Amino acid sequence: MEKEIIKQTEQNETPDNRRTVFIGAKVSPRQKEHIKSLAEQCGMTVSDYLLARAYNY
């Protein structure tokens, strides 16, 4: 499923749909490492992982 999301993301990256806006959130160092670990377990970047979670994938 994660690879489908990445594939969809890559397909959607047209000049009008490219990711150019930054959204930040404050987290503790421990939370950051936990999120990074979860993303790695899914074979995803942190950005892709957080977007997937935001869209309930």
State the main characteristics.
mainly alpha; about 55 residues
Structural notes for this entry:
The chain is an all-alpha fold and 57 residues long. The protein has a domain at 1-9 and 28-57. The protein is 56% helix and 0% strand. The protein is built from 3 helices and no strands. The protein is globular and about 35 Å long. 4% of the residues are buried.
What's the structural blueprint in terms of helices and strands?
Layout: H1 2-11, H2 29-41, H3 46-54
Helix pairs in contact: 2-3
What is this structure, in a nutshell?
The chain has 3 helices and no strands. The protein is mostly helical.
* Element-by-element helix/strand order: HHH
Q: What about the largest sheet?
A: none
Fraction of residues in β-strands: under 5%
Q: What low-confidence regions span 5 or more consecutive residues with pLDDT below 50?
A: none
Mean pLDDT: 86
Derived structural class: mainly alpha
Helical content stands at: 55-70%
Number of helices: 3
What form results from the Cα inertia axes? Answer: globular
Total beta strands: 0
